[in-house]
Target: Olfactory receptor
Amino acid sequence: MKKENATLLTEFILTGLTHQPEWQIPLFLLFLVIYLITIAGNLSLIALIWNEHHLHIPMYLFLGNLAFVDAWISSTVTPQLLVSFFAKSKQISLTECKIQFFSFATSATMECFLLAAMAYDRYVAICKPLLYPVIMTNRRCIWLLVSSFLGGLFHAILHNVFLLRLTFCNSNIIHHFYCDIVPLFKISCTDPSINFLMVFIFSGSIQVFTILTVAVSYIPVLFTILRKKSVQGIRKAFSTCGTHLLSVPLYYGPLLFMYVRPGSSQGDNQDMMYSLFYMIIIPLLNPIIYSLRNKKVIDSLVNVLKRNV
Model:
């Protein structure tokens, strides 16, 4: 087929999660509740950190930005997923596809860098407590946050630029509930090998770099914690770091399976399960994990409730 005819295909159909009518209402209600809890939890955490002055320290500054990114990731996909359960037409244009993936790629990459920055912050706080105010200054915190945003922006722009080389002519069916980049590769008429390579190189490099940063930060942290003679000190350090160590594998696991080996033969349903986990479930869990296991956050929340109730 001629290339000029291939470029005419610019409308796609998202298959969604299910074609069975009896599952549409239960799934709609389930994801609606998840989304409302996610937004309420993350925005409440942001508001708490913003209003409580004793939480205006680097650790909670990063946590507030992580909550913002989680709300962003969830809002990129979940509203469209909810509409798709009852919409007669599930069409989406190529431009809308690119915008949705751009939003997801920016926010997901930001979360990777934020998790690494949070690990570095805990390393300085526990291993070099006397130098903490000197190292983790407001200027350095802002620099880390801006770098996370610019890194996510560059990563998203890169993949959207490489999407321009692809044409679509044979199929307009995307077997997914949102416009992810890998399903687009699978229906492209143009050989997507270069695009797969770019995903493997850049997504893989970002994930490996941030995972190594977390690992290198926490290895000395664990040794420092174990050298503490006070049981109370050990518990306090583990309660501070344990939440982070819990959220890191939960977030990185599905991302590694999805994007570091995108050329694998894994099925579309498996891809959707990975996507559901890191785009909908993780943003729901993060504010719960970081709030319930953090004494300062709980105490601040109790104080706010006492003042207002």
In short: The longest helix spans residues 193-227. The first strand starts at residue 11 and ends at 14.
